[in-house]
Design goal:
single chain, 116 residues, alpha+beta, Gyrase A, domain 2, 4 helices, globular, PCD_sf, lyase, Putative pterin-4-alpha-carbinolamine dehydratase, Pterin-4-alpha-carb_dehyd, EC 4.2.1.96
């Protein structure tokens, strides 16, 4: 099994509409590599979610901007909820209707942004 360093250096691949999302076994293999992320089910779609905490709104919005730049660079975009002192990030792949390796790559890369 690959490790989190492989995810951090991974490259998102374009997904075709209608492809298959990861199954529970595949998800389980990857979740151990991004342990601070939670797999949630929203409207029968598996998503990765993590809440990042900050000292104030300026730090939160700065982090959200970094996630946005990362998303643009990789061609894979999350849902972001920015609040005072907190940013909640959701990764999933719309094209497959659930989780894909791309989402775990982006979660690992997002974790790196939170260290400053």
């Amino acid at each position: 099994m690959k490790n989190v360093k492989d995810l951090k250096s991974g490259v998102c691949i374009p997904c075709e509409q209608g492809g298959d999302p990861m199954n529970a076994s595949q998800i389980s293999n990857y979740t151990s590599q991004v342990p601070q992320w939670e797999v949630i089910d929203k409207e029968n779609v598996a998503k990765l979610m993590r809440k990042f905490k900050f000292k104030n709104f300026i730090e939160a919005i700065s982090f959200a901007d970094k996630v946005g730049a990362l998303a643009e660079k990789n061609g894979h975009h999350p849902k972001l909820i920015v609040e005072w002192g907190k940013v909640t990030v959701f990764w999933w792949t719309h094209a497959v209707g659930g989780l894909h390796r791309n989402d775990f790559i982006m979660a690992a890369k997002t974790d790196d942004l939170s260290i400053y």
